[in-house]
């Protein structure tokens, strides 16, 4: 009996095991399908939109500006190198008007000075002689003026002839001419009008004169050293305004037909690789340099912040033709709209207010302040055109994942 009960138990166990097993993996397949339907697959994170989101408070401080991507008729360009120089219309060299010894130096490198400001003082025996000559001419003029006035009174009393009055008038005119010559010599030697007037009063006659700034600007070069003996016309200071600079370019012969006065120039330099400086061609040379087969061209470059320095070597892009509406259009964005994240060129597309998608793009030709976009962006999409550095910084903090700030 016990053997029979044991056999029945085994049979029931086998039947139950078969019933519970059912078709293979049917239940797991069902669960997997439901998982896929609700979008909870294991690859979901890899397909997440890469974006940067700012809070209203943070966004207010970013300086981000948005504009749509547009198609433009971009002009052909010529890329050349060049060297920056002073804008010679806004610079001057201060020299020693007469030889002597430098007594003191007032102005130093980088100092802002006004026109006529003293830069240095020079002691000169020649100045002493000129001051003595001025005082002699001034005394003689005063004497001749008094004689002339007395002669007029005497003529009214018929004490002298009219001929005598005319003679004294001639002496007065000669004395006036001598005084004017002596005064002009003092101005040539660097004395200001108030200093000359001081000599006419009780002021002492020193032997030092001021080397003065010929123009307003900054002292960019200084050769004056106290105690140094200098000759007449020796260069001591360079004073210049650097709100504009000249860019000298060497244009190859094959490119000359495309370069003309009025063409726009955009340049970059190693000291400010992310900045673009702009100007206009105002001169194209008429003569080729034989060994290089190039001609010189000059552009005036705006430099309001003084970041460009004379002597810098730069890279320039010249728009060889003005914009022509008939030229085929290309999708383009401003140069400053392109950022770099993890080695890739990107733009930041506005998805909604304060939220930007990080969009890899393929840049093409750069023309002036515009960059052609060959792939990755559609016309009309709103992109960040200012404040891109902030977006790049935020996107780079944790790679190209979704960020909230």
Sheet of most strands: 6 strands, antiparallel, barrel
Strand line-up across the major sheet? 4-13-16-15-14-17
- Shape call: elongated
Radius of gyration computed on alpha carbons: 42 Å
N- and C-termini, Cα separation: 79 Å
Strand composition percent: 35-45%
Approximate helicity band: 25-40%
- Kindly state the mean pLDDT as a whole number? 82
Give a count of the beta strands, DSSP E runs of length 2 or more. Answer: 25
The secondary structure category is alpha+beta
Assembly of the depicted chains: single chain
Unreliable spans are 1-49, 400-405
**If helices are DSSP runs of H or I spanning 4 or more residues, what is the number of helices?**
7
Summarize the entry for a quick read.
The chain has 405 residues and is of the alpha+beta class. The chain has helices at residues 2-21, 26-37, 56-59, 125-156, 162-188, 193-200, 388-396; strands at residues 51-53, 65-68, 70-72, 77-86, 91-95, 100-105, 112-113, 118-123, 208-212, 217-222, 229-230, 235-240, 244-252, 264-269, 272-284, 294-302, 313-319, 330-334, 339-341, 344-352, 355-360, 362-367, 370-375, 382-386, 403-404.
């Amino acid at each position: 009996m016990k053997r029979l009960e044991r056999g029945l138990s085994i049979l029931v166990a086998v039947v139950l095991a078969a019933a519970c097993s059912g078709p293979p993996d049917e239940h797991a397949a069902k669960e997997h399908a439901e998982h896929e339907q609700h979008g909870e697959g294991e690859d979901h994170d890899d397909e997440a939109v890469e974006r940067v989101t700012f809070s209203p408070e943070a966004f207010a401080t970013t300086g981000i500006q948005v504009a749509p991507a547009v198609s433009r008729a971009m002009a052909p360009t010529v890329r050349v190198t060049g060297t920056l120089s002073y804008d010679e219309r806004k610079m001057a060299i201060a020299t020693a008007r007469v030889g002597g010894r430098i007594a003191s130096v007032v102005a130093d490198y980088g100092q802002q000075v006004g026109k006529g400001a003293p830069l240095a003082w020079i002691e000169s025996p020649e100045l002493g002689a000129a001051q003595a000559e001025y005082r002699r001419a001034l005394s003689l003029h005063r004497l001749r003026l008094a004689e002339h006035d007395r002669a007029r009174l005497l003529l009214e009393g018929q004490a002298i002839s009219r001929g005598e009055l005319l003679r004294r008038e001639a002496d007065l005119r000669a004395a006036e001419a001598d005084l004017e010559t002596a005064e002009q010599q003092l101005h040539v030697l660097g004395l200001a009008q108030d200093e000359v007037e001081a000599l006419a009063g009780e002021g002492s006659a020193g032997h030092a004169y001021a080397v003065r700034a010929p123009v307003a600007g900054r002292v960019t070069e200084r050769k004056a050293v106290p105690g140094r003996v200098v000759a007449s016309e020796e260069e001591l200071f360079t004073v210049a305004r650097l709100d504009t600079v000249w860019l000298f370019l060497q244009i190859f012969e094959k490119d000359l037909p495309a370069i003309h006065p009025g063409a726009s120039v955009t340049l970059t330099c190693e000291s400010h690789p992310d900045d673009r400086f702009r100007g206009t061609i105002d001169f194209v040379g008429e003569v080729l340099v034989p060994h290089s087969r190039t001609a010189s061209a000059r552009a005036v470059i705006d430099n309001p912040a003084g970041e460009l320095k004379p002597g810098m070597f730069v890279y320039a892009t010249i728009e060889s033709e003005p914009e022509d509406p008939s030229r085929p259009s290309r999708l383009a964005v401003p140069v400053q709209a392109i950022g770099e994240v993890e080695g890739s060129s990107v733009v930041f597309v506005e998805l909604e207010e304060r939220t930007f998608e990080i969009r890899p793009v393929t840049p093409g030709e750069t023309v002036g302040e515009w960059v052609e976009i060959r792939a990755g962006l559609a016309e009309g999409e709103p992109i960040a055109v200012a404040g891109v550095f902030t977006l790049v910084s935020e996107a780079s903090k944790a790679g190209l994942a979704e960020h909230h700030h």
